[in-house]
Amino acid sequence: MIFIRIYIFIFVESVFQTTHQSFPILFFKIILDRLHAIT
Description:
The chain has helices at residues 2-19, 23-38. By secondary structure, the protein is mainly alpha-helical.
């Protein structure tokens, strides 16, 4: 499942670079929590 985490991280990084807002970081943390709950 590490590849999924890397993919999500790259996706969130690109979104963060385009928006420059704190929302993507919050969204990323929520997804990480969901991933930890699943795995």
